[in-house]
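// run 5 | inverse folding | seed 20
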């Protein structure tokens, strides 16, 4: 089940968007929760995010919701690291980057490497 919460890594707060191993409805609910959290709890330009999409469902509704999330959260996020992007998800990632113009979404193979990167920027 997808969930969203803040985690601490090396003393820095990271918004962890765990959409891994999740079905469509769970992901869509978590995406809405993510928007609300960012808007209410993150100062513009300061947020660090970690999104995990490993082994999760993807369809046109989820892609649309992720595009909307990327646009909505753009003002709040300094950087977002994403893990679990492979195969068709790579094409979706590229579409989201092109659609939103975001340059602060980066891919990683492992969560630990992504968390370390986020705490070093």
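// decoded
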């Amino acid at each position: 089940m997808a969930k969203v919460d803040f985690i601490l890594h090396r003393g820095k707060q990271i918004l962890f968007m765990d959409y891994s191993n999740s079905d469509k409805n769970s992901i869509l609910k978590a995406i809405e929760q993510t928007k609300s959290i960012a808007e209410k709890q993150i100062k513009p330009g300061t947020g660090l995010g970690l999104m995990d999409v490993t082994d999760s469902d993807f369809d046109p509704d989820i892609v649309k919701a992720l595009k909307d999330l990327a646009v909505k959260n753009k003002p709040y996020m300094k950087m977002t690291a994403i893990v679990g992007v492979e195969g068709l998800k790579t094409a979706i990632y590229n579409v989201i980057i092109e659609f939103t113009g975001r340059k602060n979404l980066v891919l990683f193979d492992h969560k630990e490497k992504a968390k370390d990167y986020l705490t070093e920027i």
